[in-house]
Design brief:
731 residues; alpha/beta; GIY-YIG endonuclease; Rossmann fold; seven-stranded parallel sheet; six-stranded parallel sheet; 31 strands; 23% strand; globular; binds adenosine-5'-diphosphate; binds zinc ion
Length: 731
Amino acid sequence: MSLPRHFDQGAPVAVLTAQPLGGTLDYLAPEGGCAAGDFVEVPLGPRRVLGVVWGPGEGGFDPGKARAIARVLDLAPMRPEMRDFLARAAAYTLTPLPAMLRLATRAPGLTDPPGARHVYRPGTAVPARLTDARARVLGVLRDHGGMGFGLRDLCDLAGVSAGVVKGLAAQGALIEQAAPRDAPYPRLDPDLPAKALTGDQREAAAALCEGVRAGGYGTTLLRGVTGSGKTEVYLEAVAECLRKGRQALVLLPEIALTAEFLARVEARFGTRPAEWHSGVGMAERRRVWKMAGQGGVQMVVGARSALFLPFRDLGLIVVDEEHDGSYKQEEGVLYHARDMGVLRASLAGARVVLASATPSLESWANAEAGKYARLDLPARFGAAAMPELAAIDLRAEAVPAGRWISPTLRRAVAGRLEAGEQAMLFLNRRGYAPVTVCRACGHQIGCEQCDARMVEHRFQNRLVCHQCGESAPVPMACPSCGVEGRLAPVGPGVERLAEEAAALFPEARIAVLSSDLFASARALKEQIAGIAAGGADIIIGTQLVAKGHNFPLLTLVGVIDADLGLQGSDLRAAERTFQLMHQVAGRAGRAERPGRALLQTHQPEHPVIRAILAGDEEGFWRAEARERQAAGVPPYGRMAGIILSSPDMKAAFDLGGWLARHAGPLRAAGAEVFGPAPAPIARIRGRHRVRLLVKAPKGAALQAALSDWLAPVKLPARMRLAVDIDPQSFY
Ligand code: ADP
Ligand code: ZN
């Protein structure tokens, strides 16, 4: 893009705002002029909104009518490479540009004049009456070392109304001050002593550092079993990036992981990096955003949306656990943070490190094809060996009805408890029982709004819909036949498994880790730290436990149902099961004690189960790659999902049918369309969902064809149409 850099006062300029208006709007440059990339405030109807000067305006309108940009904001201008990135990401995901800008400006108070914010700090006076609410406010400030908070953040953190804070201020127990401008973060020191790396680690680190030093774009897949030191290795690449004076971004899949990670960064570089995720307070978000643009932050650790921060000079993006499904944003703008990370790096001249024990087939194939470099860490660090893996053939075990722990698994758990070690039972199902059935009429209780069964959650004593979150008390009588006392749970969830474990091991301390059982990320972190320190004997968990947490005393993992993920028609079912089982098994034996993983299965001869047991990873990827290649599906072909949703099922099918019949632009590009069909989850929150699937050869211009195809569509009232490029989940 070559754009005039400066627009004189009164010149027409195109301004992109985050308002859903389609494209840019024309304004007149303000007094003093403005330049492409400037963040500005513009009048829009009765309001003033944030915008970015995108380029020259169309001109040709009546200059008397056009409105002028209100002012240029005191923010680092958006860099050309960031504008390119937003435009390319918008084109790739078929998202309107304003929605992309919204992602890139998700920090509050960007239009506030500097110093206009006020914060509260502890005062000297003691409040007259220390109510609970007041104590919480003072507690929050104490916990944060006397740091100041804006009114909103303080109220949110303490769970109190504004009146409570203002009351404390009136008494002098809090003082209100003008906030200092956002301050740069403390400097990280890349030259503090690192751990002495092993030979393999040193080679891998040297290769990554070499890339960072050379500058320019490049992506490396860093593959290594859990505990092989991938984190140690990529932190050296971060160090090299910091030495060059460039910024580093590390993406992690789960907030719960960051506590341990932050401590490791601090140990390596002397201070903590900045954080960016949903748990970060408003004032801090603004600070990270601004410092990214001004170069006042060297390293950001964050969730996928950190990719849209306005880094001044991004030199390295690490995507840890790159195969993790949570990198795909499934609501709003449907983008994959790994893929967008590679795009951003290619535009910024940055390096990418994709780290995983079990890479996505996409990344594996890119490495095979030579598009990505690949580094392998073959062994676990130190004395830790890979866990020994074995199947428990459920066809040969006598497991009573309503029980899920086989005699073999039970003996293995008992053995570990006697040795004073920990055992984990893994079941990827939240709640008590996935199905509640009426023994009188056979009716299964479903959600009224969704095509989903209600899941019993016994701790809460409610039935919950895992699609829409709707919940209801467990009824006494069957909602269908009205007979009382015959409703029964069918199948296991982690809560029910905990009940069984408690009956089998009455002496054991049992901890259940499931995302719905924790009120906050902090509560979860505390629980995990407690368990790691030996606070439980048996850990029962959903996939939450599969990710990265280090439990040094854990030496046995029992997978209750290894077949669970293999059911269903999802093209990634095998890959996901392989990754999840590998990851879960990898929890065992991280310290000096050897670990063991037992997989309960009804199909020990299934190729995926066999590959897991044999530890034959390359064999698995190769076989999986062959199948996908033969079917022409990702990563060897391209796909897009179209979801039409409406309260009116017929309208959704009618439009779907029309689209299928008018697929000329798709066929011209060599693509095929399948459907319309009811989506696998055919109704969510009262909206019927109809799906079309588009399949195209690898090189096809899929986005252009989709745009042409969908251009004539006029959406009827209450109908929504979402395009999902490279769909990850097929719901
Ligand atoms: P991964 O990211 O591959 O799971 P980590 O980097 O977390 O592996 O390493 C696993 C454990 O081994 C961590 O506690 C880490 O500090 C330790 N470790 C790895 N390599 C070394 C090393 N060279 N020296 C000391 N400790 C190491
Ligand atoms: Zn529901």
